[in-house]
Design a protein that fits this description.
The complex is a heterodimer.
Chain A lengths: L6 E4 L3 H25 L4 H9 L2 H32 L12 H14 L14 H25 L1 H7 L4 H30 L9 H4 L1 E2 L1 H7 L1 H8 L17 E3 L5
Antiparallel strand pairs in A: 1-2, 1-3
Chain B lengths: L6 H7 L1 H14 L3 H16 L1 H5 L13 E2 L5 E2 L1 H8 L9 H4 L11 H11 L1 H8 L5 H6 L7 H5 L25 H9 L2 H4 L8 H7 L1 H9 L11 H5 L19 H5 L26 H38 L1
Antiparallel strand pairs in B: 1-2
Classes of the chains: A mainly alpha, B mainly alpha.
Amino acid sequence: MQTDIREYFLRFDISQRIQHFILFISFTICGITGLPQRFYSIEFCQDWINLLGGGGNVRTIHHVAAATLLVIGIYHLLEIVFRAAVLRKGSIAMIPTPHDAITVAQNFKCFLGMRSEPPEFDRYNYMEKMEYLSVIWGILVMAVTGLMLWFPEATSHIFPGQALPVATVIHGWEAILAGLYVAIVHMYFAHIRPEAFPMDPMMFDGRISPHHFAEEHSREFERVTGKTSSHDDKPTNKHNASKESNSKKK
Amino acid sequence: MPKKPCVVVMLYRKREGAHNILKLIRLSRLPRVPVAVVIMAIITIGVVPSQVYAFGGQDCNSCHVDIGTSAQMIINSQDIQDTLGDSVHRFVGCSDCHTQFAVGAERGNLSISQNCGTCHSSQYQLYANSIHGQPVVEEDKRDHPSCIDCHSSSENANPHDIQSVLDADSSAYRKNVPNTCGSCHGDENMMAPYDLDPYVVLGYERDFHGRAVLFDGAEIKDKMPATCVDCHESHYIQSSDSPASPVYKDNQVSTCRRCHEDASEAIIRGWMGHSEPTGTHFPVVFYLTWVYRIMVPSVLLWGSTHVVLHFVRSLRNRRKN
C-alpha cells in the first residue's frame, strides 16, 4: 500500500517522547544492572557484574537509574494533573472501557481468520493500555520495594519485619515480569512486527502516517478526520487538531 | 618456580600509606629518578630474600630434597617451597612447628592446633572453648576443624600453605569465608551426624549478604557485607542454641546492629535465617512467591500469544496483497 508520506499525524508530543526516551534508558539500565543481581548464581551474571566494576558499582548505577525512573514517573503524573486541572485538556484515553473487552474478542477472531476487518481501536488499543498501566503500577511497586531494600534500617522502623523479605520477592519477580514482557511483547510490536521492522520510529519523531493511523486506530481516525478509515486515507485540513504538514521534507 | 609474595597487592592494600610516601617525596623535592631507583631497590630486596629466608634460614632442604627419609616421611621440598615460600609463615623455621622428630608421630587435629597455639595462644584459647575446638581438644575428634582446615588455602589443608587473612587468596579472607565454611557445612554427609542443615550455605548465598560478598567481598571498606563469621564468630564459634553465641535468639538484634546501627528491633523478624520460606516459615513470602510463579507466566503467555498470532496474520496479509 502506497502512502503519502508528506502527510502525517502527530501522535506523541515532544514531552511524551522525551519521557519515553528517559524511561527507555533508565529502564534498560535498571534491567541490566538489576537482573544479574537477581540471577547471581549464573556465571554470565557474575562476569557481567565484575565487568561493570563489582557489586558496589552495580548497585550505585542501579540506584541512579532507579531514581531517574522514579523522577520521570512522578513528572508524568504531575503532567497529567497539570493538563487536566490547569490546561483543561485532560485525557482519559488510557482508561480501560467496555469497548476494550469487545475489541479483545474481535481481535482474536481476526487473528484466527474468523473476521476480515481488524477491530476498531481507539487512540490506544487494549494491549497499549495494559502496558501503559502496568508501567505506572510497576514503577510504583518497584519504587516502594526498591526504596525499602535500599534503606533497610528505615524500613524496619516503618514496616513490620517481614516486609523486607516480602519486598525482595516482589522486587525480583516484578523485574522478571517487566523485563521479559518488554523483551518479548514490546520488542515485537516496536521492532520485529513486519509492518514496523526494523523499528517503528513513532516514539522518536512522534509521527504516524495516515495509513497506519486509519488501520491501527480507526476509531480515533474517524473522530479526528470525520472519515471512515477504509477509504481515503488522507487527512483533510478541516480537522487538523492533531495534524501537521510536513511538505517541506521530501 | 615458587611464587613471589605479591608486592603490588601489598602496596595496593596499603594504598594510603603509599600515597603518603609519594606526597612526602613530592614535598621534599628530592630528585625523582634516584628516589625511584632507591624505591625499586627496596622493593627488590624485599622480594628476593623471601626465598633466602624461607624455612627460617634453616638448612633443612639440603637433605629433604625429594627423598624419602622413611616410609611415612616423603618430603617433597619443591612442594613445600611452592607453598611455604608464598605463605605468611615463610620466615618461620621448620623446627618451630616440627618440634618432634619421632618416627611415626601422628599428625592429628589436636597436635596441629596445639602447635599453632604455641604462638597464637589467644586464638587457641578461644578455639579450645568453641564448638569447633572443644571436641578436638577434649577428644581429639577428627571430623572437627583444626586451625589449618580454615586457614590453609590448599584443598587438602596443607599446613605449609597458611596465608594471611588479609591476602585475597587466603581461605580466611572475607570473600572466601562462605566457601571455606561451606566446604564442610554444605556437605550433606559431613553434617548428617550432627543433624545440621547443609542448605544453610545456599541459603546464605541467596540472601543479600551472600550476594554482596560474592560481588564485592574483595573490597575493604568501612561497612562490608556480613560473612559467616561476622554473625557467628570465628575462633569462638558456638552453637546457635548457646547463650554465648551472637546468633542466639536473645542476641540477634544486637548482632544485626553491629552493622545496621539504626535498625529497629523489627529487623530481626525480617530475617529468614538460612532456610527457604515454607507454609509455616515466612508464609507470606512463600505464598507470594507462588502467586508470582503463576502470574508471571500467565501474563507472558497472554503477551506472547498476541505476538505469535499477530505475526502469523501479518505474514498472511502480506502474501494476500
